[in-house]
Amino acid sequence: MSRALLEMVEVLAHEKNVDKSVVLGALESALASAVKKSEFPGTDADIVVKVDPETGDQQVWRQWKIVPDEDGLQEPDREILHWEAEEDYSDQGPTEIGDYVKEPLKEVNVTGRRFATDAKQVILQKLREAERTQLLNEFLANYKDVKIVTGQVKRFDKSDMIVEIGRVDARLPRSEMIPNEIYRINDRIRAYILKIDPTSRQQQIILSRTCNEFLAELLRQVVPEFNEGLLEMKGVARIPGRRAKVAVQVKDKRIDPIGSCVGVRGARIQSVSSELFNERVDIIRWSDQPAEFVISSLSPATISSIIVHEDEGRMEVVTPDEENTRIAKGTDYINVKLASALTGYEIDVMDHDQAEKKREEEIAPRRKELMDALNVDEEIAQLLIENGIETVEEVAYLPEEELLSIEQFDEDLVKELRSVARNALITKALKREELLKWADPALIDLSGMTTEIAEKLHPAGITNLEQLADLATDELVEMTGISEEKAAELITKAREHWNQ
Hints:
- By secondary structure, the chain is of the alpha/beta class.
- It has helices at 2-16, 20-39, 82-88, 113-142, 212-222, 224-227, 257-262, 267-275, 290-297, 322-329, 334-343, 352-374, 378-386, 392-397, 400-404, 411-435, 441-444, 451-457, 465-469, 473-480, 484-495, and strands spanning 46-51, 58-67, 79-81, 100-104, 148-157, 160-165, 168-172, 188-196, 205-208, 231-239, 243-250, 280-285, 305-309, 314-319, 346-351.
- It has 21 helices and 15 strands.
- Strands 5-6-7-9-8 form a 5-stranded mixed barrel. Strands 1, 2, 3 and 4 form a 4-stranded mixed beta sheet that branches.
- A hairpin with a 2-residue loop joins strand 5 and strand 6 (160-165).
- It is flat and about 115 Å long.
């Protein structure tokens, strides 16, 4: 029977095209599983079977791993404490933590019909795993430096596509397919190797046609200047099947980066677009100046001005008219979405009229604050804002020369404004001190909170952020008389710490 086992190993190795040692290992695992099931039912015994590759004779034993005494037994069926191993298995020589002690099982028959039945499924499973591993290793060797592969549609697994690449089956998930593309069985398809998962029990190679890397690699294949180091790809943004933007930096100023990527009569970029289901690909000249980069990314729209809010990662882009605003945003806002993804900035596009309206909405509260605190009319407050002076603190403490540089201001007016501003700040500080006698500092310093609002919260017992955050908008409106919009804004600010 031992010889019969070896013959079976030879046959399976030949049929499955795997190494004999792999089949022998599968056989040993299967026999160990069968012994465990037969001799130690209901336990997690660690059984080892070794088959002599020359004679077919088998050795069977149970083993326990030696663990430190202080750790205790985490797996009682498979572990033994160090002191027990030294005491009970001293005949096996010195015992070290991490080693194994063994107990031979001499009366076990591993050649019976029951063992063959129990072991069959384990052998087949081990061989399938070995086949997958071998095929994957062959694939990795053959496609070592390849990122885009060409295969044949073999079948569909629910909504995913199974693609045959040589002897290996890869999976193209529905989420990685370009929308509205249609493929049929036996069609040829190209895709990017997105991930290789050796532990997967299904297809170990995952493909993608929607990832940015697919577009980038297609461009590198048709534009030799990238591989020659004359051009560098700085970023890619895509809405698969519709539109994409690629930022390119030129290393040799004699080269036109856009012309190189587009090619003669658009041949290069058209070949890439055709592969991507006619996805429109825009080539953008990269710049290390954020504003310039954003303007380029919004092409072909004309941009009048741009305001960079660096700390907020945001830019306000102003166009001369509605038509250019429409172009900058694009159909379904695709152009501005891609520009945002490519540049890393949140981009707010508006025409000149919209920009003026927004600017007015932003400065109106600051202008009113200056008017109230300094007891001046709208004209003077507006002049201060237009010259970049937007707070009472700036009026009080900026050098006189800066205020005098405003054409309409004389020395007497500047002195009066500075005096009034400083008195207003003193009054504000005194009121804050009064408020702090009953209110939490975080409530008083909340963005948008005023002395008047805080004073109206006191009778209602609202003294900290948590109590304000628990209010409904209509409750805050009733307490303070402020607008619903203002009330909602304050409550939202008060709740921000809930998410921290």
